[in-house]
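thread from #wetlab-drylab

HS: before we spend reagent money on co-crystallization trials with guanine, can we at least see a predicted complex? here's what I'd submit
DV: go for it
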Amino acid sequence: MTAKRIDGKAKAEQLATSITQQTAALLEEHGIKPGLAVVIIGEDPASQVYVRNKGRRAEACGFHSVQHSLPDDVAQQEVLALVDKLNHDDAIHGILVQLPLPGHLDEQSITQSISPQKDVDGFHFVNIGKLTAGHTDDAFVPCTPAGCMLMIEDELGSDLSGLNAVVIGRSNIVGKPMAALLLQRNATVTMTHSRTKDLPGVVRNADIVIAAVGRPDMVKADWIKPGAVIIDVGINRVDRQVDGEMKTKLTGDVDYDDVIETAGAVTPVPGGVGPMTITMLMFNTLRSARLSAGLEDQATA
Ligand code: GUN
């Protein structure tokens, strides 16, 4: 049987429609417009594209959207001063400093200078701590794992009791928060990484596989338990020969064409996790605006 292709793009669009409607209602009923500030430092081309897309999506949702572009030799103090200004700006509910940063800047002190109440990336230690302790009611959950979780719920429901989940990759942005979310939903979670012995053997036990390592097409069909749900977080640019011409192609960490005959459901790259991530940023920003006004939290969609 061929696996289901999980359409992250369609799900993200559905969710964005709901966010846009809730944003209009928040403005009409409470006079509040969610505000998202994105800070970009330097000229990294991939980051420029991501940031432009975040700004566009924020505007499409009806948000107040601002971008601050700083030169790549900007001083640490100047970045901290901008974050401080945004922390105190009542029109801004979400602050995101695009990573990676130029080498001379201290990423940790910048990330941790963002007010936890405006940390829509979910990178502040307060939000990480709340997520780890299971206090997600008032924590911001990092966007990529939050989006992955919604797609997993669509396939398997919100209670993952009795299911084995294997997370490949232990990053702070994806692997670790993903494991915390899966655990909260009662999955039996195994974290794996570059030092794991017999990775294919471990993955073969998984009902749910999250691949977040940045190794193109690493996960193969013979790693996969028949019927497993596979979420591919990888976005790798690889050069491939197409009709005698070298072309750059986006590919995930999972060999999609290989696993499609074995798995139960798989996210494609592009069109899977990526669109969900950016929409979850909008979800977190709307949520922040609502929480700042003392309003009840709202459901995802
Ligand atoms: N760079 C790549 N992904 C992300 C993300 O989710 N947040 C931030 N701030 N930077 C990133």
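DV: The longest strand covers residues 35-41.
HS: ok that's useful, forwarding to the group
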